[in-house]
Amino acid sequence: MTKIKVCGIKTREAYERLQELGADYIGFVFAKSKRQVTPEQAADLGEKKADGPARVGVFVNETVEGLLHTAEVAGLHVLQLHGDESPEFCRKLRQRTNLQIWKAWGVHNDERDAVLAAYTDVVDAVLLDNERGGTGEKFPWDAIPALRAYTQDLPLFIAGGLHPDNVGDLLAAHSTDGVDVSSGVETQGVKDLAKITAFVTKVREQR
Ligand SMILES: O=C(O)c1ccccc1N[C@@H]1O[C@H](COP(=O)(O)O)[C@@H](O)[C@H]1O
């Protein structure tokens, strides 16, 4: 079953729709972004219900102390590291928390991607994206099989430029453990409930 994460949630309406739809993960952006929320705002948007979506925090080059503080205040289950965090940084973070750690990797499509192999024993999942997060831009999907070889058995999420009209093509062409979307379910920079519903429905049809 392909897991579904919808990221950049800033309103209760979007949060509640994702709960109703049974999404697997709800993402909050704590990095500098038009989607940035404070830990307190993320906490106020909703709570994790027993079988409801897990709460993912998206960070870019945050300190260990900053990550742990935000996770505590916002009630996070997953720390998504979307910057230049090294394998060594992930190892240190892992020694301080039982929360899941996901490493987002900006696909280079060259020999630099081999560095991904160094994360396999220090994170819980890898998320492939274009070189910067939250831009709505795809990376070349034909790179996925080679990247999967580096990440071995780790769960692999695909992000970057997904939307309701292309996620079916991705899932038809490539096996992935999860998909992650932000820009592609927005209209004029605001989460669009109809697009969120269409995205989740499309993924469910394929899996
Ligand atoms: O969404 C953001 O603003 C953001 C900012 C900084 C780092 C990551 C960010 N979002 C992540 O980017 C990917 C893909 O987003 P999109 O669908 O292409 O817009 C996703 O993993 C978000 O969590």
Provide the fold topology.
Elements lengths: L2 E4 L5 H10 L3 E5 L9 H7 L8 E6 L4 H11 L3 E4 L5 H10 L3 E7 L18 E5 L14 H8 L4 E3 L8 H7 L4 E4 L4 E2 L2 E2 L1 H14 L1
Parallel strand pairs: 1-2, 1-8, 2-3, 3-4, 4-5, 5-6, 6-7, 7-8
Antiparallel strand pairs: 9-10
Bound molecules: ligand LGQLAAA5.
The ligand O=C(O)c1ccccc1N[C@@H]1O[C@H](COP(=O)(O)O)[C@@H](O)[C@H]1O binds next to strand 2, strand 6 and strand 8.
The CATH architecture assignment turns out to be Alpha-Beta Barrel
Q: Could you give me the name of the CATH homologous superfamily?
A: Aldolase class I
Name the strands of the widest sheet in spatial order. 1-2-3-4-5-6-7-8
The biggest sheet, with number of strands, parallel, antiparallel or mixed sense and barrel status, is: 8 strands, parallel, barrel
> Which cofactors or ions or other ligands sit in this model?
the ligand O=C(O)c1ccccc1N[C@@H]1O[C@H](COP(=O)(O)O)[C@@H](O)[C@H]1O
Portion of residues in beta strands equals 15-25%
Please provide the count of β strands: 10
CATH-assigned fold name? TIM Barrel
Order of helices and strands: EHEHEHEHEEHEHEEEH
Return the average pLDDT rounded to an integer. Answer: 95
Radius of gyration: 16 Å
- Report the oligomer: single chain
Separation of the first and last Cα atoms: 6 Å
CATH class group: Alpha Beta
Structure class: alpha/beta
Total helices: the number is 7
Overall spatial form: globular
